């Protein structure tokens, strides 16, 4: 008879060492696996039950370590790490490849009229806004008014920027013109992500010590988190956009899709999801509070989002 699985496995952390790029890459290849979006509600509920009970010290009969880790990654792919809520399906990182492939294909097909370009740019930036909201950091509730304001400002600013830069292709050489779409994507990310996560920049995100004891909320941590996500998203688009320079339009969507399968997890892995910073880089008043109440803490940790 097999021995019962130990309850000492640390499933709060990923299975692989997150201090190395390879470990983070293995983690994100699992989290962003497009097959995760095919999981049924029953499968998600089953994984949720396994993980919730395990955290309470209850082991499902016959559960193996591999099954536990599989349940953890199913859980992580669908439930927000801070709020615990089930994430919007198209906003999950596992939906990045099929959604971006579909939207990119439509943008490449319907590009001859200004209304069509405007519509698909709006669809693209609306999708980005959903992803940015779904993968935000922190657990503070957001009102419908705040969410609506963030969405309108993010999509309007990003669409206007992308259209403006794309218009440059008519006035520059064809070679330079091929770089413009990537510049438009990069600029749109620099606008969309901070605006959709503006509440974090205004009020801060939760910071903890190494044992997950909450120490407060920091806007400085939010700035670092969002900056890292912007860099990751820009680089995530670069392999696909780079093929625009060397690959014929007929094969561009296929090349973009292939590169996205690898670019999504590898660029997510550039920075640890559980990011950190020294106490000395926090807001002065928060530094004083931590040093007064937790004198041994020199470094704080936070979820940077994706």
TrEMBL record:
InterPro entries: Mtc (IPR004686). It is found in: Mitochondrion membrane. The keyword Mitochondrion applies. This is Sidoreflexin. Coiled coil: none annotated. The lineage of its organism: Eukaryota, Metazoa, Chordata, Craniata, Vertebrata. PANTHER family: SIDEROFLEXIN, SIDEROFLEXIN-1. Its main location: mitochondrion. It catalyses: L-serine(in) = L-serine(out); L-alanine(in) = L-alanine(out); L-cysteine(in) = L-cysteine(out). It is a multi-pass membrane protein. GO terms for molecular function: monoatomic ion transmembrane transporter activity. The keyword Cell wall biogenesis/degradation does not apply. Keywords: Amino-acid transport, Membrane, Mitochondrion, One-carbon metabolism, Transmembrane, Transmembrane helix, Transport. One of its GO terms (cellular component) is mitochondrial inner membrane. It holds the Pfam family SFXNs. GO terms for biological process: one-carbon metabolic process; serine import into mitochondrion. Amino acid transporter importing serine, an essential substrate of the mitochondrial branch of the one-carbon pathway, into mitochondria. Mitochondrial serine is then converted to glycine and formate, which exits to the cytosol where it is used to generate the charged folates that serve as one-carbon donors. May also transport other amino acids including alanine and cysteine. Belongs to the sideroflexin family. It comes from the Eukaryota.
């Amino acid at each position: 008879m097999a021995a019962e699985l130990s309850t000492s496995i640390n499933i709060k952390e990923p299975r692989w060492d997150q201090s190395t790029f390879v470990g983070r890459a293995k983690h994100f290849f699992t989290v962003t696996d497009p097959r995760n979006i095919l999981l049924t509600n029953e499968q998600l509920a089953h994984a949720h039950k396994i993980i919730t009970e395990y955290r309470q010290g209850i082991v499902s009969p016959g559960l193996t370590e591999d099954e536990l880790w599989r349940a953890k990654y199913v859980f992580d792919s669908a439930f927000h790490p801070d709020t615990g809520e089930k994430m919007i399906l198209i906003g999950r990182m596992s939906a990045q490849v099929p959604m971006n492939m579909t939207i990119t294909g439509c943008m490449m097909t319907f590009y001859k009229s200004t209304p069509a370009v405007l519509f698909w740019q709006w669809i693209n930036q609306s999708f980005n806004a959903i992803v940015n909201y779904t993968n935000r950091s922190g657990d503070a509730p957001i009102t419908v008014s705040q969410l609506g304001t963030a969405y309108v400002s993010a999509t309007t600013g990003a669409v206007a920027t992308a259209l403006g830069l794309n218009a440059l292709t008519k006035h520059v050489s064809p070679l330079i013109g091929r770089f413009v779409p990537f510049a438009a994507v990069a600029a749109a990310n620099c606008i969309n992500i901070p605006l959709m996560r503006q509440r974090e920049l205004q009020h801060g995100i939760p910071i903890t010590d190494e044992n997950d004891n909450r120490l407060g909320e920091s806007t400085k941590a939010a700035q670092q988190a969002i900056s890292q996500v912007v860099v990751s998203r820009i680089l995530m688009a670069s392999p696909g956009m780079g093929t625009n320079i060397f690959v014929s339009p007929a094969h561009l969507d296929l090349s973009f899709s292939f590169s996205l399968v690898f670019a999504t997890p590898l660029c997510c892995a550039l920075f640890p999801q559980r990011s950190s910073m020294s106490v000395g880089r926090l807001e002065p008043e928060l530094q004083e509070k931590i040093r007064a109440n937790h004198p041994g803490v020199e470094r704080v940790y936070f979820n940077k989002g994706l």
